[in-house]
Design brief:
Layout lengths: L2 H25 L2 H11 L1 H9 L4 H33 L24
Length: 111
């Protein structure tokens, strides 16, 4: 084997190792991804792509989606508050002034 072929082989192995680490980090196995990519090359990358995600990665993704939904709801609330303020309404709606008076003509049903 010539030195040029060995250098190309080493470069391909390192590229596969770092690609395996990137795929493994995305799936929750960064160290294993590096090792599998280094040892098995392109076949290792295929194996890593087919591996399932860890529960920690799934939980972190769900937490991120939840936080994004909360932020979107907060932005929507702020938009509605600004629209109500510009229209002349207090936001959030204020209770009517004075004590609440129940309807006077109401009678309980006779059994």
């Amino acid at each position: 084997m010539t030195p040029g072929v060995a250098i190309i082989g080493l470069a391909v192995a390192l590229v596969c190792a770092f690609a395996g680490q990137a795929i493994g980090r995305w799936k929750g196995y960064p160290g294993a991804g590096f090792a599998i990519g280094l040892l098995l090359g392109v076949f290792g990358l295929v194996i890593l792509a087919l591996m399932p995600e860890t529960e920690a990665v799934k939980a972190a993704r769900m937490q991120g989606q939840y936080e994004a939904q909360v932020a979107a709801a907060q932005r929507q609330y702020e938009i509605q508050a600004e629209a109500a303020r510009r229209a002349g309404y207090p936001f959030p709606p204020q209770p009517p002034p004075g004590p609440w008076q129940p309807y006077q003509d109401w009678q309980p049903p006779n059994p």
